[in-house]
Design brief:
single chain; alpha/beta; five-stranded parallel sheet; 6 helices; 5 strands
Length: 195
């Protein structure tokens, strides 16, 4: 693992609400990072992406270099050693902004000369989510999506921090999640195995 001063965490806030339970949990976890770790925080709703289209089997199949918000997110992603998807659980999976961001990875992998997939290999993917249910197994599809993404990209899966919070501020009552958040990013990432 890289030295603390070599690490940069990209926190992608993927809720459609600001200052929600997922964001609170992510900020609590980020506070536990060593001082030398750089952090960048981006709110996906502030950087709206175009609808995802897949030109693989239509037209000339070219993949232009991303522009605008897509370029901003691509550059931030490639600049990070650790990518944190902070998404509330919506219908048992990722929020729409988080899913759309990951959908754009499909095209980024095909931009000539970008080598996105190869460049992401060895980095670490993390998840933070708040769910409105004491049964944490309802988040299994979200956890599986991040695990499978990490595996496909040859990334490490750092883990997924789960907390219970639906109403504003409710996450503050989930003392187990808050305690886990305090050391969440300081533990070793899980190997991107299971191929």
């Amino acid at each position: 693992m890289a030295a603390d001063t070599d690490r940069k965490f990209l926190f992608l806030l993927a809720s459609t609400r600001t200052d929600g339970n997922t964001e609170h949990l992510a900020r609590r976890a980020a506070a536990g990072l060593p001082g030398g770790v750089r952090q960048e925080w981006l709110r996906l709703t502030d950087l709206p992406l175009p609808d995802f289209t897949d030109p693989r089997h239509a037209g000339d199949g070219t993949y232009p270099y991303p522009e605008g918000n897509a370029r901003r997110l691509l550059d931030a992603t490639l600049d990070a050693t650790d990518v944190v998807i902070a998404s509330p659980l919506y219908w048992y999976s990722l929020s729409t902004p988080a899913k759309l961001y990951l959908d754009h990875w499909v095209n980024w992998m095909r931009v000539p000369g970008l080598d996105f997939r190869a460049r992401m290999g060895g980095r670490t993917l993390w998840g933070v989510t708040a769910l409105g249910d004491d049964n944490r197994s309802v988040a299994d599809p979200l956890v599986g999506a991040l695990r499978n993404t990490a595996n496909y990209m040859s990334m490490h899966l750092g883990g997924v921090l789960l907390g219970n919070g639906s109403a504003p501020g409710q996450i503050l009552a989930d003392h187990d999640a808050l305690a886990e958040a305090d050391t969440f990013f300081t533990r070793a990432p899980l190997a991107a195995a299971l191929r």
